[in-house]
Amino acid sequence: MTRVAIAGLGTVGCGLVSLLEQRGGQVARGERVEIVAVSARDKNKHRPFSTSRYEWYDDAVAMARSSSADVFVELIGGEDGIALSAARAALESDKDFVTANKALLAHNGGELARLAEQHSRSIGWEAAVGAAMPIVAAIRHSLFANRSERLIGILNGTCNYILTRIEDGESFETALAAAQAQGYAEADPHADISGLDAAHKISLLSALAFSTPLALEQVSVEGIANITLDKVRAVARNGYCIRLLAICEAVPDGLSLRVHPCLLPIGSRLANVSGVCNALIYQGDFCGQVFISGDGAGGNATASAVAGDIFSIARGRKIPLFGLPSANLSALPFCPLQDIISPWHLNFRVRDQVGIVASISAVLRDCGISLASILQDGSADGDADNVSLFLYTHRASTIAIDRALSLIDKLGILQSAAFAIRILEMNEDK
Ligand code: NAP
Ligand code: HSE
Fold first, then answer.
1. What is the pLDDT of residues 245-303, one digit of tens each?
2. How far apart are CA 43 and CA 58, in angstroms?
3. Which of 167, 331, 369, 391 is 20 to 30 A removed from 318 (C-alpha atoms)?
4. Is the dihedral of CA 195, 281, 125, 75 positive or negative?
5. pLDDT by residue (tens digit) across 76-114?
6. 10 Å Cβ neighbour count for 178?
7. Residue 7 CB–ligand 1 contact under 6 Å
8. Which of 123, 120, 79 has the alpha carbon at shortest distance from 97?
9. For a substitution probing ligand 1, which of 6, 9, 12, 201 has the most ligand atoms within 8 Å of its CB?
């Protein structure tokens, strides 16, 4: 029998209790998993199960140290504080540790991995990336023999939910409120919207896939705060949708780690991922492109992954946090975002006057940026004097685009701030 202590009884914790209460005694070929202790902030809060069945701890760290559990599950959240203290206490007390907390692992995964190795314990973290989507297990097991080349993921359910609700005509604010009501968003949804949550996740996946130490500080991060209904509609007219992508890829100068919104051709694999779904294209040298998708947030979806880790530990499976022992991970150089090359979409709101397009294209020419196509649209708001220019470029570096945008801004012809967004290259998303 495997005894489990659960710290945190919110969206995910309640989902896990429900799952283990229904399945704990039955699955894993006779392996029994039982909850023995629980902890949350408020003992008297109403919960959808009776906490009196389990030993209650006001202090999650005390539960990590002294409960009779074999596995300590942390579902509190936060990169430090009580979550980190409890994680350390559990491993030091020779308990296996399971968490859905990507912020905790992205900041402290190296230390916790070493601690787990010293105590011959496992850390389960499937739920921390993509919730129900089994990507950690896939990379740690089935794909592990490959040399990883590229990971392109939709790794934040809240952002994907918002972007696809905007496609249906909803405002950003309404869509965010709906994501919060469903329990998808972080306690502070800024972590979702800013891209930080996806950055936590891609930093963890890159360490696993490329056998490198964690490097959260190397992730370039841009979120979706400036993606409006107007912009989504405008790109849709030209055959694209917008998704927040988390990317880790081997490039000639090392590894590129980044999170940013991207245009995808409507109908392509990642473009078809809608709502709270997450997806990842893993590209390896022998497997080619593997596409995995599943619900990336929500109580039950996340509990499914947490429980999978618990049963895996119950069956005796022990693998280091990042696939290899910490001492065998080796650092790679990182390629700055400025040097990353891709096609771009640029949108300028300008007065409809002679010579405007010529001025903009002269700047692009001077910055070495080649245009693939250009469209003018004055229909959006019926203002005959102002028009939108939609430019699609061939491959250009971030540094060249930044320079061009700065020079175009100085021309004094823009009616509002320019909008620039990368386009995912077709061969990355066949
Ligand atoms: P949540 O609904 O806000 O629940 C947090 C829980 O932690 C609550 O039960 C709270 O107690 C408890 N807590 C807070 N401070 C505590 C303390 N000092 N000691 C003990 N317990 C404490 O959060 P959640 O959505 O379940 O998320 C939990 C973790 O899973 C986070 O790391 C999150 O990033 C991750 N995650 C969430 C999802 C998702 O879809 N929600 C998906 C994947 C991963 P009270 O109930 O008494 O207030
Ligand atoms: N807030 C996160 C998301 C939860 O929306 O993806 C899952 O990690």
1. 999 999 998 999 999 999 999 999 999 999 999 999 999 999 999 999 999 999 999 99
2. 7
3. 331
4. positive
5. 999 999 999 999 999 999 999 999 999 999 999 999 999
6. 16
7. yes
8. 123
9. 12
Cα 122 from Cα 125, distance rounded (Å):
10
The verdict on the CB of residue 295 being under 6 Å from ligand 2 is no
For residue 198, the CA-to-ligand 2 centroid distance in Å is 8
Q: Which atom of ligand 1 is nearest to the CA of 47?
A: 46
Tally of CB atoms within 10 A around 171 = 13
Residue 41 beta carbon below 6 angstroms from any ligand 1 atom: yes
124 lines ligand 2 (CB under 6 A): no
95 carries an active-site annotation? no
CA of 172 to the centre of ligand 1 (A): 25
Q: Give the number of other CB atoms < 10 A from CB of residue 332.
A: 16
Closest protein CA for atom 17 of ligand 1: 41
Tens of pLDDT along 203-261?
Answer: 999 999 999 999 999 999 999 999 999 999 999 999 999 999 999 999 998 999 999 99
Spatial separation of the C-alpha atoms in residues 256 and 66, rounded to whole Å: 43
Which residue has tokens 């694209």? Answer: 240
The structural domains of the chain, ordered by start, are 2-128 (3.40.50.720), 141-294 (3.30.360.10), 340-423 (3.30.70.260)
* Distance from Cα 374 to the centre of ligand 2, integer Å: 37
User: Do residues 196 and 225 touch, judged by C-beta distance below 8 A?
Assistant: no
Give the angle subtended at the CA of 112 by the CAs of 109 and 115, to the nearest 5°. 150
User: Using CA positions, which residue lies closest to atom 25 of ligand 1?
Assistant: 11
- Kindly compute the dihedral angle of the four CA atoms of residues 45, 47, 49, 50, in this order, to the nearest 10 degrees: 10
Our answer on whether the CB atom of 206 is closer than 6 Å to any ligand 2 atom is no
Buried b (16+ CB within 10 A) or exposed e, 240-249: bbbbbbbbbb
CA of 71 to the centre of ligand 1 (A): 18
What is the b/e burial string over 251-280, where b = at least 16 CB atoms within 10 angstroms of the residue's CB? eeebbbbbbbbbbbeeebbbbebbbbbbbb
**Cα-trace Rg, the chain:** 24
Catalytic residue among 45, 102, 201, 430: 201
Q: What is the bridge-based pairing of β-strands 396-397 and 341-342?
A: antiparallel
Q: What is the DSSP letter of 220?
A: E
| The token pair that represents 383 in the structure block | 């203002």
Helix (H) or strand (E) holding 57: strand 55-57
Alpha carbon of 11 to ligand 1 centroid (Å) = 7
